């Protein structure tokens, strides 16, 4: 079976990411100066599209290779949170790193913080993947959330009130799960500087 490819089109009749050559060909055929490139993962496709041109992306990739920067592990999962305000309306989710397929999406929750969402997303992913027998790594771009999971405690300064009762119940459940369970999934820090935004990002920055 041939390897899966994604096609990034910077200049063409249509631009964006296409999942097969037929779609890509339709977007670039007949367009003078078309710029496109095939990549092997959806994560790389999204990263490439953030650059203004094919040449700019290829220059960046060559610099990565020269610097010995390894790409993210394809068979892994990513979590992220988004909060409108601090505190504010909170959501969090988990996606497969290579395919971008969403594993879960929780929220919105009133009166939360981004750090709480990152913490809950990691624990939710750990619990769900353990239930499925999956030991793949989990990426997060939050060092604070990684520390809280390591310490098995959500050390938020946010005070519980009648608006976030549901959120604090989830925090208690997550802390209990960490106390009562072990896991084999490596928890890894996403390298935003070299890889771009984490695939689970909500795109609201």
Automatic annotation (TrEMBL):
PROSITE patterns: RNASE_H_1 (PS50879). Mg(2+) 2 binds at residues 118, 141. InterPro entries: Ribosomal_bL9/RNase_H1_N, RNase_H1_N, RNase_H1_N_sf, RNase_H_bac, RNaseH-like_sf, RNaseH_domain, RNaseH_sf. It is an enzyme of class 3 (hydrolase). It catalyses: Endonucleolytic cleavage to 5'-phosphomonoester. One of its GO terms (molecular function) is metal ion binding. The keyword Flavoprotein does not apply. Residues 71-205 form the RNase H type-1 domain. It is found in: Cytoplasm. It comes from the Bacteria. Its EC number is 3.1.26.4. Gene3D superfamilies: Ribonuclease H-like superfamily/Ribonuclease H, Ribonuclease H1, N-terminal domain. GO terms for cellular component: cytoplasm. Belongs to the RNase H family. Endonuclease that specifically degrades the RNA of RNA-DNA hybrids. This is Ribonuclease H. It comes from Bellilinea caldifistulae. The lineage of its organism: Bacteria, Bacillati, Chloroflexota, Anaerolineae, Anaerolineales.
